[in-house]
């Protein structure tokens, strides 16, 4: 199932975004509240986690910290999250799709230059997806995939579209449309940021956003103690910066 979050705004400690809030991403790893429609019960997201952030002030990044263990099992994370600050973050906790690899390279976020990419969902028979969508990957694209997983494959499909100059929202929407044509039961919540803008799709799993003052947060599930959360309709594309938020049908 996975759960993910992206934030743009004033630099904050990672702990304030990922571990401290009520029903934080940390808590969603073992107690998610919004199960997919196809699932009978919530899934524990214990197959790894990852955090990507852009260091403030110098234009560097993104920097990633990824592990193949549950987020609650990493004894280093509380100390790191307390001292690392950023105004642009993408993080995820993972529940692996059957047949995918389990090393830390399979944990989002994946990197495409300055872009960070995450997938919340699952694609049945993902290994056959390129052939079934008439979109065979080149040897270079296959070798460039960070992991053997549906999420890494979707990232490679998105990269192909960005490489020929397609706008981010259009690229994500096209990947969702082509994938669901071949795999109608696929769940495809895609999330990307370059540290300046966020793009996200909702297709099958929950997605929320909170735009207040000069910050925007997009997350699989809202923090109940923070006012202003709004649910993104299913089958929608969200495009956001710290100043604007747009939602349109996929």
From TrEMBL:
Gene3D superfamilies: Glutamine Phosphoribosylpyrophosphate, subunit 1, domain 1. Its EC number is 3.5.1.118. Residues 2-250 form the Glutamine amidotransferase type-2 domain. One of its GO terms (biological process) is ergothioneine biosynthetic process. Pfam families: GATase_6. NCBIfam families: ergothioneine biosynthesis protein EgtC (TIGR03442). This is Gamma-glutamyl-hercynylcysteine sulfoxide hydrolase. It comes from Streptomyces radicis.
């Amino acid at each position: 199932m996975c759960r993910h979050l992206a934030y743009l705004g004033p630099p904050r400690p990672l702990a304030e975004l990922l571990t401290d809030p009520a029903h934080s991403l940390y808590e969603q790893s073992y107690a998610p509240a919004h199960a997919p429609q196809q699932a009978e019960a919530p899934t524990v997201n214990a197959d790894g986690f990852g955090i990507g952030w852009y260091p403030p002030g110098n234009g560097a990044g993104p920097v990633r910290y990824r592990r193949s263990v549950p987020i609650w099992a990493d004894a280093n994370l509380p100390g790191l999250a307390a001292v690392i600050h950023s105004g642009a973050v993408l993080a995820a906790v993972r529940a692996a799709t059957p047949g995918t690899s389990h090393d830390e390279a399979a944990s989002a976020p994946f990197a495409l230059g300055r872009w960070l990419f995450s997938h919340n969902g699952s694609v049945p028979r993902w290994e056959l997806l390129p052939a079934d969508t008439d979109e065979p990957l080149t040897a270079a694209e296959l070798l460039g995939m960070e992991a053997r997983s549906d999420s890494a494959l979707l990232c490679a499909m998105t990269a192909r579209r960005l490489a020929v100059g397609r706008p981010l929202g259009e690229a994500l929407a096209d990947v969702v449309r082509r994938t669901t044509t071949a795999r109608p039961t696929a769940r495809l919540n895609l999330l990307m940021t370059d540290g300046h803008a966020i793009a996200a799709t909702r297709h099958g799993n929950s997605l929320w956003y909170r735009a207040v003052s000069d910050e925007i947060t997009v997350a699989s599930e809202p923090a109940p103690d923070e006012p202003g959360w709004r649910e993104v309709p299913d089958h929608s594309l969200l495009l956001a910066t710290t100043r604007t938020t747009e939602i349109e049908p996929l």
